[in-house]
Specification:
5% helix, six-stranded antiparallel β-barrel, globular, mainly beta, 47% strand, 1 helix, Thrombin, subunit H, 132 residues
């Protein structure tokens, strides 16, 4: 991980430092009176209590979203590491993605990270990803 972003300071009132991290993420949410939704994206930055994610489809503001972030394993030959979280979407916006060099939908969410994959995420990942 890189050092905290330069623009992070006390003016913004963040509870913890954010770190630039471009990692694949799988998102799951269930809108009220609708079937479950899912999307794939890439993280822009991550902190102990929040994330910013670029995704083609984003959950609505105030929606509860579950996510599985795939981190590369520093041990050669080992599977990636799953970082599982649940959170609430705080804002959604059209943002510029430096990695893709284009405008994309992005959203910020407050999150709580879990030590292992929840059963709900595991059931939705079957057939999409090998669960390790």
């Amino acid at each position: 991980m890189k050092a905290p972003s330069e623009h992070m300071g006390t003016v913004e009132g963040r509870k913890s430092d954010r770190y630039r991290l471009n990692a694949p993420v799988f998102l799951f949410w269930t809108p009220q009176n609708s079937p479950p939704q899912s999307s794939e994206g890439i993280t822009h930055d991550v902190s102990l209590s929040g994330v910013y994610i670029y995704a083609d489809e984003t959950p609505p503001v105030e929606e509860i979203v579950q996510m599985d972030i795939l981190l590369p394993n520093p041990v050669p030959g080992c599977s990636e590491i799953h970082l599982t979280a649940e959170g609430v979407v705080l804002r959604s916006e059209l943002s510029y993605d430096e990695i893709a060099s284009r405008s994309r939908h992005g959203f910020a969410a407050s999150v709580h990270f879990y030590p292992e994959l929840s059963e709900w995420v595991q059931s939705h990942l079957k057939g999409v990803l090998p669960v390790v």
